[in-house]
């Protein structure tokens, strides 16, 4: 008991020395203890609640390497920059890093001079990096999946490497000393019970401890308004921005082309802004992020990736010019406002429900579902050409979008990853019910639509949707548009 007490005393002293706080916020201490004991975990706590230090501190206290899987370069760079400012042994690897710097980082990894290594799923599974990581001499303590909701939202088709992460631990352990333990922890601000289940299954977590906090944030005011026509939508946006003069904000939109046209229109009205989307070069994206952080841009007209992990506390408003398809996306995006705890206004603009005057929202939802159905059908057509066993490199050379097809088969339970590079089909025939898969996709879209159309407290709906039904009973936040109307 005294030994445990001494160990925890070291944990607290290190925390106070590096981060400067007196005490942990609940459940930070419990999460840190869990990871130090090499136990798997799923952590769902709101943006700004101090998720990062929950895995950074255990990594710094242990000898060996902790791998942090992160979806975006900007997210990695921000966290590693902050750690290096504190003179801590952390580094990152991604495709934009020059070769000499990359080589230097890999040498540090080999010499075990790094405690935290940030990298994307694709970089982790690149053969040169993998060869170094599986070396028996290299001690690896843990695998952290940061922004774990991306595994579910992007993992099937946009970032198929996420689906192979579940085979990483066992493949590493085969090359490590017999008593090696590698804990896996998934961190996110938004994951309902279904999403948590997918994360647990795909990552092959072993009896994970779960730490889930309510997503409710008292400083976020939620509002949904009907825009009867496209012109009306523009005017409502303009009125909202004018009511938040010179305050920092974000406008979320669903396509590259529309982000650029809306940004140009607002620039013609002398608003300092720019468009941000995946079509920009990495350098352009970094420049926009920096300009926004330095207050040289009032707002950014962006697609969903912008703002993930960027720590800008004084975002006073967030507009969804078009509603996202998934409720988890919405919760992530409103969470990028008000990180300083001060009041932040969130407005979502939607077409009128019938679609007679403006069918654009309905068309976007239908297009989204058709694209999913098209990919599912493509996978079904190609499955007969895929060998019963094989490796991902051969499949990607032989079949267009082969990696995505393997990812879809894995998600449907038709394929097993023997290691991160080799697979085995579970049956020679395709037994996936496409109608059922389409129904699941439609249900996710309907959940978002139900939120937009509810007449009850919006935060009550979100609490129910994200697994807090007891807290939601009789809930009225008092500051969303529906509560104020009542």
Please mark out the parts with pLDDT under 50 across 5 or more consecutive residues, or reply none: none
Over all CA atoms, what is the radius of gyration? Answer: 23 Å
The fraction of residues in strands falls at 15-25%
| Overall 3D form | globular
- Please tally the helical runs, counting DSSP H or I stretches of 4 or more residues: 21
State the major sheet. 7 strands, parallel
User: Terminal Cα separation, in Å?
Assistant: 55 Å
Class inferred from helices and paired strands = alpha/beta
Helix content: 40-55%
* Integer average pLDDT: 90
Let me know the number of strands: 16
Question: Strands of the biggest beta sheet: in what spatial order?
Answer: 3-4-2-5-6-1-7
Task: Please give a quick description of this structure.
The protein is of the alpha/beta class.
Write the layout of secondary structure elements.
Elements: H1 2-19, H2 28-36, E1 41-44, H3 51-61, E2 65-69, H4 73-85, E3 90-93, H5 99-110, E4 116-119, H6 121-124, H7 127-133, E5 140-145, H8 149-153, H9 168-173, E6 183-188, H10 193-203, E7 209-212, E8 220-227, H11 230-242, E9 249-252, H12 256-268, E10 273-276, H13 282-293, E11 299-302, E12 317-320, H14 327-334, E13 344-351, H15 360-382, E14 389-391, H16 392-398, H17 402-411, E15 415-417, E16 422-425, H18 434-453, H19 458-465, H20 469-472, H21 481-485
Parallel strand pairs: 1-6, 1-7, 2-4, 2-5, 3-4, 5-6, 8-13, 9-11, 9-12, 10-11, 12-13
Antiparallel strand pairs: 14-16, 15-16
What does this structure look like?
- This protein is α/β, with parallel strands linked by helices.
- 45% of the residues lie in helices and 15% in strands.
- It contains 21 helices and 16 strands.
- The strands form three sheets. A seven-stranded parallel beta sheet has the order 3-4-2-5-6-1-7, sandwiched between helices.
- Helix 2 (28-36) packs parallel to helix 3 and helix 15 crosses helix 17 (402-411).
- It is globular, with a radius of gyration of 23 Å.
- The N and C termini lie far apart (55 Å).
- The model has no long low-confidence stretch (mean pLDDT 90).
